[in-house]
Amino acid sequence: MERKIENMSISLPKELKERVKRRVQEDHYGTPSDYLRSLIREDLRHRDQERLEQALMKGLDSGRGTVIKSEGDWKKFWQRRAGKGGKNK
Questions:
Q1: What would the DSSP string read from start to end of the chain?
Q2: Which candidate, 54, 51, 19, places its Cα nearest to that of 35?
């Protein structure tokens, strides 16, 4: 699958520009764009991790869990979710 690459221009203070150049050389990135893309990807992973942790904490704080032992239990669970505006599976 071919990705379409878009161009984006950013302005950096001279000090930051020099730091980017050094990181590219020190960490063997091909270009400053490669380095910036890696920073963006890491930021996105970090944000996804934070959202997951928030969802897990919300689940832990929501009360006692329910043991699901059978297919029928799963059906009841999804029916209750659908009744509360959740997605039906």
A1: -PPPPPP------HHHHHHHHHHHHHTT-SSHHHHHHHHHHHHHHHHHHHHHHHHHHHHHHT-------SHHHHHHHHHHHHHTT----
A2: 19
pLDDT band of 88, cuts 50, 70, 90: very low
Structure tokens at 3: 């990705």
> What is the arithmetic mean of pLDDT over 10-19?
97
Asked if residue 36 lies in contact with residue 20, where contact means CB atoms within 8 angstroms, the answer is yes
Beta carbons within 8 Å of 81's beta carbon, 6+ residues apart: 87, 88, 89
Q: What is the pTM of this model?
A: 0.67
Contact (CB, 8 A) for 12 and 23: no
Rounded distance, CA 14 to CA 18, Å? 6
Sequence-distant (≥ 6) Cβ neighbours of residue 64 within 8 angstroms: none
